[in-house]
């Protein structure tokens, strides 16, 4: 088991190396000269050359990449061109809203998707099943920001139950914190739930046709016992896999959802960085999101041993 | 032998094709619905100059932020532009981007996938690169690429295509690897069939079905990604009315003029839904084994 964890950890190194090379090349081939921007409008050619040398911009690609990667490994993501602040600090400042949004979205989607998917598989072929599948296809097709606007229109503008946008830190009390999170996490969570519900149903259908399910029924176990204890447990691996893969979808959704709801998180930071062509910040954000994605999928891989004791490494 | 027997054979084959299509529509009515909506959207896009009531770019400050009415079916935005005409023209961008991204990414993914499926050394290098690219969420990858380039429809297509290629490559590679072990491919190689003939006759035809299904899903996700990119200001240039752009412009005024956002949103959702319905139907028809499971 430990050997497997170590092996999987080592396997992520080449993946992250490719990401790092890609992200670094982004700055390397980006149009515009950061030295010229820093030097300002009145700078002479010598000034710019001096700054070039100071920043190490006159060195070859591999040397620059090496230095950059070394810094990144030490938590130094460079200085934002737009704000002149360290990128790592910018990200740190914005981490809380994004983490809150992601966790609440996961809670919303999992508590909705799993029961609904199980129900659809249990009642396969009935109107309940069709309704769930219809919901899943709709969830696939409606972009999260469209759903976000529909929810804002109904619950914030018309009914005035919840705030239209903004974010309240958890340090300011649980009430406002949750109030501000309900709409964004529902908008994003419903889309993600559609994906998970679909796979849950498919995976459950497969398991429910197995002989041991019939045996479980035959020995007089209640439907609930069979569904949760026998079927869902055996259907868990594909569900975990799709939750991991879906994180990519979720990250894209976070960027847009934060824009719609004016949440000052990392997604918003990304959008601002793009409009200002702030490449160091864009690099930092891509590295962070990709690392998060890789780590989540690593955890999902490791969870297989818990979910399915037959999986041995 | 004359050409006559060939003709006789050709007719039933054609009839069979038509019968299969009818069977597909009968068994999966959603495909018919999806195709109908899609055909309508294509018509709207093609006929946009005739359907639009005014020039989508025409400013009319006097008539700004009008609620939907007889004169402006979907209302007007904050510059007095007719939202209906803009949404009609927006269909062009979404369908154009969706189609070409699906086309290019399946074509490129197919080419790379075939090579990696057959050559171990290439496979080792290329798949590591693909694994790396796949660990960057596609929307983020497209955003990053757009940040490097000028906003244009061509660059949007290129960026989204690059973000989709790794998945197609992996799909094609998987198909090739499993086909290579199949007895009929081994037999073809054993009787001395040339490499390219084996490829063309035994491998390629078997990649068409999964690629067609994947292509539809890519088309749907490309339309959503285009809208996302335009919505956050990193996509189609603002002077071209795309659904994402119209929504981006309506964003700040949502509480006063929600219709500016909702109409393009509805068109986008319906179009993506139509493409997904076609994709689901195709998948069910082309892969019955998977269909029973999903």
Please supply descriptive tags for the structure shown above.
heterodimer, A: 313 residues, mainly alpha, 13 helices, B: 294 residues, MetI-like fold, 12 helices, 76% helix, elongated
Architecture blueprint of SSEs:
The complex is a heterodimer of chains A (313) and B (294).
Chain A: H1 2-29, H2 34-39, H3 45-55, H4 61-73, H5 87-122, H6 127-141, H7 144-158, H8 174-208, H9 211-218, H10 223-234, H11 236-260, H12 266-275, H13 279-307
Helix pairs in contact in A: 1-4, 1-13, 5-6, 5-8, 5-13, 6-8, 7-8, 7-11, 8-11, 9-10, 11-12, 11-13, 12-13
Chain B: H1 4-27, H2 29-46, H3 48-51, H4 83-118, H5 120-134, H6 138-148, H7 153-180, H8 183-190, H9 195-231, H10 243-251, H11 259-286, H12 288-293
Structural write-up:
The complex is a heterodimer of chains A (313) and B (294). With 313 residues, chain A is mainly alpha-helical. Helix content of chain A is 78%, strand content 0%. Chain A contains 13 helices and no strands. The radius of gyration of chain A is 24 Å and the shape is globular. Chains A and B meet through helix 1, helix 6, helix 7, helix 8 and helix 11 of A and helix 5, helix 6, helix 9 and helix 11 of B.
State the CATH architecture of chain B: Orthogonal Bundle
Secondary-structure content class of chain A:
mainly alpha
Oligomer state equals heterodimer
Q: How confident overall, as mean pLDDT of chain A?
A: 83
Biggest protein-protein contact in the assembly: A-B, 55 and 45 residues
Taking all Cα atoms into account, the compactness measure Rg of chain B is 23 Å
Q: What is the rounded Rg of chain A?
A: 24 Å
- As a percent range, the share of strand residues of chain B is under 5%
What form of chain A results from the Cα inertia axes? globular
